[in-house]
Amino acid sequence: MNREDLYEFQTQMRALNRALKEKYDPLFSMSKKDFKGSLTEEIGSLFHLDPLSEEELKNMGTVAGVDGSVTRSGGAHPHYIELFQGLALSLKGEEKRVRRVYTPVLTEDDAMSAEKIHDRYLAEVELEAAMGILEESRVDVIIMDGGLLRYKINSREKWEELRSRCISEKVLLVGAIKDIKTQDIAERMGKARAFYDREILAGKLDRGELLLLAERSKEEAGEMSKEAAGLTSGFYRPTDHWEVVGLDVLEEQKDHLMTLARLLYTLTPRKGRGVPFWIDVVDKRVKVSPADLQLLMEESMDRDMMERFFVSERDRRV
Q1: This prediction's pTM
Q2: pLDDT tens-digit series, residues 258-272
Q3: 243, 274 in Cβ contact below 8 A?
Q4: Strand ordering across the sheet containing 231-236
Q5: Spatial distance between the Cα atoms of 152 and 165, rounded to a whole number of angstroms
Q6: Rounded distance between C-alpha atoms, residue 290 and residue 13, angstroms
C-alpha cells in the first residue's frame, strides 16, 4: 500500500468512525440503570437465572446438541463442490450423522438457486440428525446451534416433522443463539428498527439476567416473525463478557423457557464465548476440514474430473 492509498483509506475510515459515533453514542452511553428503567410492560420483563443444581441437571434427562457444517472446494459458480454434515451428539456419547454432497455442475442450478439449496441442505442435515438421534436413542432435550426460525424458512417440511415429534414425545427443543440478528426491541421502543437487539442489549444486562419480550399476537408481529412461526424467544447474558445471547423455544413449550434458559446458562463457561460448552464440542466434531475434502476428492474421483471441475485457477497458481 503506497502513501496515497494509506491517506485515502484513513480519511474514509475516520469519516466512518465519526458516523458510527453519531449514530450509536446515545445508545451506548445509556447506563444499565437507565435502560432497565426504560423497559415497559409492552417491551418486556427482566428475570434472574440461577444455575441448575446437580439434582436439577440430572432430572433434565439426556441432553443432545445439534450442529452442522459445510466445506467447499473449487472456484466460481458452478464449478465447486460442497460437503454438508449434520451431527447430533448426546452427553452420553450417542450420535447421529447425516452427510450430503452437492455441486451445481450436475444439477445446472443458477447461482441464486444454488445459494438457496446451500441453505436448505445445511438446515436439512441438522434436522435429519436431530430426528435420527430421537429414533435411535432416548433424548429429553435437544439444543440446536442457532435460532430455530431459519429451519422453517429453509426446510419447512422437515422442520415441522421435528417440531411435531418433539411436542408429541415431550422432548424439549431449544435454539442457542450466539449472533442475535433481530430488531424486535427497537421496534417495541419506537426506534423504527434503527438498531439491532444485540446493539441495544450490549452491556445492558448483568450476568445471569434474562430479558423476556412481551408477547404479541401473530398478526401484530407480522408473517415473517418468530411469533408467526410458533416460537418464543428471550435474551440473556451468560458470561463475564458484556455480550448478550438469545434462545428460541417452541410456543407449545414456553412454560419450560425459564428451565431451558437456566440449562443453557449452566452449560456455558463463565469465561467462554457465550455458547453452551456442548455445542462447542459438537461444532468441533462435525467439521470437515478443507484438507479432508481435498483428500476425499483425490481418493474418490478421477484426477481429470477433479481438476476439470473442482480446482480453481487460484489453486493452480505456483
Answers
A1: 0.92
A2: 999 999 999 999 999
A3: yes
A4: 44-48, 209-213, 231-236, 245-250, 172-177, 141-145, 63-74, 80-90, 95-102
A5: 15
A6: 34
